Amino acid sequence: MGIKKISFFVNHYVLGNVILTKTIRIFAAIIYLFSEIEAEIQRPGNYTPFRYFYLKLIKVNFGTKCYFSRGIVIYNGNQISIGKYASIGERSMLHAHGRIIIGDYFLSAPGLTINSGGHHISDLTPFDKKIIIGDRVWCGTNVTILAGVEIGHDVIIGACSLVTKNIPSNSVVAGSPAKIIRTISRIDQKVWTWHQDK
Q1: Per annotation, catalytic residue among 12, 95, 119, 153
Q2: Which of 59, 70, 126, 190 could make a disulfide contact with 39, Cβ separation 3.0–4.6 Å?
Q3: Nearest to 75 by CA among 116, 104, 112
């Protein structure tokens, strides 16, 4: 963490699309550092007021009883919407060049990357495309989801998968690029969350 992270937030902190004053950038950096300490000592399912305050400060829209682990990097928080009972693993990156919409009961292991932007191959001009992720989606370690992807409900994405195309509901996918390896059928829509395991 240390000086490099403090410097990053002081010099580059953005709230929505409005560059903040230096005083507010420093304040935001301090809140972020407190939220990182909090994430380090709190287990998933516990209340994390500094983390919630930080996310609200950068205008991330998130539902009730969400958990955000340590080392998370968020770009353009005002473009991100996350449902209830979501859990984002440590060292995850949400780069919202375009909208990122995540449903309820989302669960990710460490190292998740969701990037709704990219560059055209022909001339490297940047573009953004919305990413939509349904309810009850589970991502294994080091999953990457690229711009323009839509993922249905009740999907499992295997570790180290690269998601470049849409995934239908009730699918298990894995690989780079990710491909369907089987389908699943849940009897009901109840799934485990960190909160019930306390």
Answers
A1: 119
A2: 70
A3: 116
